[in-house]
Amino acid sequence: MNDYKAAKEAFVSGMTGSTVSHINLISSVALVSIALYSTLQTRIYVGREIPFLQSCVVLVLPLLLSMTLFANKPVSLCFLLLLPTGFILLRTPWPDTSIPLHGSAASNLAAPKQSSLTPLPALTTYRAHMMFMTILGIFAVDFPVFPRSLAKCESYGVSLMDLGVGSFVFSNGLVSAIPLLKDPRHLSAPLLPKLWAVVRKMFPVIALGVVRVLLVKGTEYPEHETEYGTHWNFFITLALLPILQVLLHPLIRVVPSSLLGVGVGLLQQIALSLFGLKHYVRTAPRLNIISANKEGFVSLAGYLSIHLLGLSTGTLLLPPSPSFFRRLLRQRSTPSELSAPRQNDKTAVELVSYAIVWWALLGFVSLLHVDEGVSRQTANLAYALWIVAFNTSFILAYLVLDMMFFPTPAVRKGKPVPTPIDTRASAPALLEAVNMNGLPLFLLANVGTGLVNLSMRTMYTGTVAAMSVLTLYVLAFCVVAWRLRRTRVWRL
After folding, report:
1. Looking at the domain assignment, is residue 164 inside a domain?
2. For residue 46, how far is the Cα from the chain centroid?
3. Is 251 exposed, middle or buried (0-12, 13-18, 19+ CB in 10 A)?
4. Predicted confidence (pLDDT) per residue in 204-213, tens digit
5. pLDDT by residue (tens digit) across 34-86?
6. Number of domains the chain contains
7. Range of 269's domain?
8. Residue 470 lies in a domain
9. Is residue 439, in this structure, part of any structural domain at all?
10. End-to-end CA distance of the chain
């Protein structure tokens, strides 16, 4: 087992990654799969739910193929998905009679709830697809069918798995805006009670991080020490970020969270480049608890930057209009307006503006050769900007697809005007199910990955066997999510 452990650790170590354009093309498969699903929903399954198995084939299987068999030819996979999409669009006309809204949509238009956010299907779709890409990457990386260029980079570089980690943090930051939108007084509430409340909520995640360390050490499970450190892991980072956000509430009241996020990333980059922190991560011996987990401690500030920029995006995306939170802080809006009809066109325009800014800043940082490139290991400024630019752009793409296939009713004098197309108030049912219990499912996927790795030597598995195991794995994940779709297992 010791020889295999060493071979397995070498199998996932020393990677230099791929390119931003390659990662974007692979990720675009998710967008094309949604286009195909939406085409089926509006042309074939009008007013009905697409069955579970068909949903898995359309929404999930392409993601698995994009990072395995089609990883080096994602454009071909996109083309294969676009063929049936285009054929159905050309051959099947839009329904020419008014179709009743689904029950959830009708109730949403007829009787909005006080201080409740209007559903945003594009966000649910984005978060669920991000979850699928993350859990598939975590498991598939142990098989040779998963290209090494997509595995986590050792020090510098971009890869699909590096993107997944940062996107998970960004997504959590995005939804952390919800309590601030519902009650902006939360920012000025006494700090200690808030801190204690969030520590209690995050304690199970911290406990899971500790349990993972004990299990990894106790079973001689292959580990990648330069990823987070000897004892640190991603669960610990996830648990600490909401706590750090609460500590910054006094600043968030007076400084836009976008500027605060960039500021944190900039300060960390200064420490990395000018004060020897980068050299410390690379060369310091692991002599104590701090140096043993130097990667985890150093990258925490970078992940906080991503979390805060996710929070900023959430304040634009979640309310009915992108200016809602700014007006709320100036007391020109009230939380009761959260249930107003969405102005998705304005939200899309604002997202375009931010996407341009983040990509431009990333290009500027690269042009100036700040640091040595993107580094997930230290979560440097380039990494934070890449994560935010990517996620902002892809959320925008999901939103535009939703606006194309499921146009929002026009609003006249505050009243929605029905359209001839079914206005969907929810994302695909399978993706809703994944989003319902995101964190528990993520933990379950990690446990499943560990059990499979302990029961078989994945790095020596052939292509056919690997694809069979991966397909069964993701299908089991979908079945569990589907069975739990009406129950929130763990409310944080």
Report:
1. yes
2. 29
3. middle
4. 888 888 888 8
5. 999 999 998 888 878 899 999 999 999 999 999 999 999 999 999 999 999 99
6. 1
7. 2-431
8. no
9. no
10. 38
